[in-house]
Amino acid sequence: MFKKVAFTMYPVTDMARAKAFYEETLGLPPAKDLADGKWIEFDLPQGGCLALTTMIQGVAPSSEAGGSLAFEVEDVHALSETLKSKGVKFKMDVFESPVCHMAVVLDSEGNAFMLHQLKNRN
Hints:
Blueprint: E1 8-11, H1 15-25, E2 32-33, E3 39-43, E4 49-53, E5 69-72, H2 76-85, E6 89-96, E7 100-106, E8 112-118
Parallel strand pairs: 1-4, 5-8
Antiparallel strand pairs: 2-3, 3-4, 6-7, 7-8
């Protein structure tokens, strides 16, 4: 029986650089080091876990492969501008769907993730 998604994992090539990106640039809570710097996890305040690893052989960071992580944010437009001012690269600028606003960001290793903001439903 499936219980929940345990974590979203991204491969990284430089753990120190990746950890700094997620902690310092994005402002995620401090990571837990679970394997001597080869696997770290960020537990988000309202649920979800992002794991970064250098342990998996033959898997490289990519903005083109498989699934992607989406962070729910309060203000996607403001956060996008803040991240751009810090030199963060975007694969897709903020765009609108019928139910939300999103942007696709590249992390320090080349993995893509999304910033996501639901529209108000009045």
